[in-house]
């Protein structure tokens, strides 16, 4: 070993990102293993590599004792003080014992150990890089598909998108760029294992933070998320600044911000509602695009009864109960939806429950079909009123 060897290690440091000291310590451990295997397995020894010249030396180590029981491991005080008068009991005396032909044997024995240490160091670097990014979003390239698992290339390593974390109906192609959410980073014997998701609500949150500067800056706060990946999501947003419309900020000019996110999620519908500290108003908002007549709440049980026009009942409940289910997740309240005619049968005087909800603000990225359906409902309702 010489200065050229040290230069090679420095180049390796730049290429792999592994500190020279880490590599030298790995090589010293490898040389010690080689020495014990071939020359002195029963001896205490250490190997030292000069950090300036690259020269290496092997030293035997013997402990200073009063009475020697094994001269390979111990030395009495009198002999130790012949070497150096400053030695005392318990000190360690070192003598150089570097074999003449040690270089060739050491190189052969140390090769695999050094390579393994380099691999371990690389794995640790990768693990530390991604361990702090749990809960973050990353972009990778679909590398391969095995047993329905999607392997995504992330440069020096890869992430795994398991079937349970894949969006329903979403197809993945080799070479496709994909945004995913880091769920967990595990340390394994084969290196770090990065588990990612396309269904986690955190993905939606991070996408909005990327698209909406007001969220990133803290001007707008994302209070809660309810998501059924691949189908529909609802988010509740709020701003302490009265001059900032949180819903408008998330929708963006001409709806561009939310449309970018919808495109990234392959058409998943997203409803954006304004969070309100008043539970009745928040529950009513959460059921958008359905219009709400009144809301009755039981604070202790966190139960809300919502009254909607008859023609809005199916829209409020949603297909297979999806709209009501998402609203319940978003608000954390159990929601019971009743039409006006149903309430009239139960409570003929139900009008006393009505609350003024005129100031509730709704915003929704519902589909064109939903919009047409809502307009049809409104037209029918208007026609019935004119007939009367």
Q: Could you characterize the architecture of this molecule?
A:
The protein has 388 residues and is of the alpha+beta class. The chain folds into three domains: 3-130, N Utilization Substance Protein A, Chain:P, domain 4 (2-Layer Sandwich), CATH 3.30.1480.10; 133-199, Beta Barrel (OB fold (Dihydrolipoamide Acetyltransferase, E2P)), CATH 2.40.50; 277-388, GMP Synthetase, Chain A, domain 3, CATH 3.30.300.20. The chain has 13 helices and 16 strands. It has helices at 3-16, 20-38, 77-83, 102-131, 201-211, 213-217, 246-251, 256-264, 279-286, 313-317, 322-331, 340-346, 368-387, and strands spanning 45-49, 56-65, 74-76, 92-96, 137-146, 149-153, 158-161, 177-188, 191-197, 220-228, 232-239, 269-274, 294-298, 303-308, 334-339, 364-365. The strands form four sheets. The protein has a five-stranded mixed beta barrel. Strands 1, 2, 3 and 4 form a four-stranded mixed β-sheet that branches. Strands 10-11-12-16 form a four-stranded mixed β-sheet, with helices on both faces. β6 (149-153) and β7 (158-161) form a beta hairpin. The longest helix has 30 residues, at 102-131. Keywords: Cytoplasm, RNA-binding, Transcription, Transcription antitermination, Transcription regulation, Transcription termination. Belongs to the NusA family. One of its GO terms (biological process) is transcription antitermination. Monomer. Binds directly to the core enzyme of the DNA-dependent RNA polymerase and to nascent RNA. It holds the Pfam family NusA_N.
């Amino acid at each position: 070993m010489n200065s050229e060897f040290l230069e090679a290690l420095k180049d390796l440091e730049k290429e792999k990102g592994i500190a020279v000291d880490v590599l030298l310590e790995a090589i010293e451990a490898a040389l010690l293993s080689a020495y014990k295997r071939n020359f002195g397995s029963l001896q205490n020894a250490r190997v030292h590599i000069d950090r300036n010249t690259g020269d290496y030396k092997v030293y035997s180590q013997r402990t200073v004792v009063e009475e020697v029981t094994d001269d390979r491991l111990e030395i009495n005080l009198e002999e130790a003080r012949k070497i150096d008068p400053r030695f005392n009991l318990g000190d360690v005396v070192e003598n150089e014992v570097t074999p003449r032909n040690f270089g060739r044997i050491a190189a052969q024995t140390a090769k695999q150990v050094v390579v393994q240490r380099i691999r371990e160091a690389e794995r640790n670097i990768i693990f530390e890089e991604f361990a702090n990014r749990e809960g973050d979003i990353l972009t990778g390239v679909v590398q391969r598909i095995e047993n329905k698992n999607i392997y995504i290339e992330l440069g020096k390593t890869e992430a795994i998108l398991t079937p349970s974390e894949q969006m329903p109906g979403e197809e993945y192609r080799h070479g496709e760029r994909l945004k995913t959410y880091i769920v967990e980073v595990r340390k394994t014997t084969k290196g770090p294992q990065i588990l990612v998701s396309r269904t986690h609500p955190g993905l939606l949150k991070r996408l909005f933070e990327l698209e909406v500067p007001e969220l990133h800056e803290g001007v707008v706060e994302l209070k809660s998320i309810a998501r059924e990946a691949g189908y529909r999501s609802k988010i509740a947003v709020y701003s302490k600044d009265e001059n900032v419309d949180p819903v408008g900020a998330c929708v963006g000019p001409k709806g561009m911000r939310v449309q970018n996110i919808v495109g990234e999620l392959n058409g998943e519908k997203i409803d954006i509602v304004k969070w309100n500290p008043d539970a009745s108003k928040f529950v009513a908002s959460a059921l958008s695009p359905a219009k709400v007549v009144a809301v009755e709440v039981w604070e202790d049980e966190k139960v809300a009864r919502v009254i909607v026009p008859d023609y809005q009942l199916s829209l409020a409940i949603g297909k297979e109960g999806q709209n009501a289910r998402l609203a319940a997740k978003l608000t954390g309240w159990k929601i019971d939806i009743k039409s006006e005619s149903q309430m009239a049968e139960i409570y003929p005087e139900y009008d006393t429950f009505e609350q003024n909800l005129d100031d509730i603000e709704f915003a929704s990225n519902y589909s064109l079909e939903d919009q047409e359906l809502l307009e049809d409902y409104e037209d029918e309702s208007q026609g019935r009123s004119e007939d009367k």
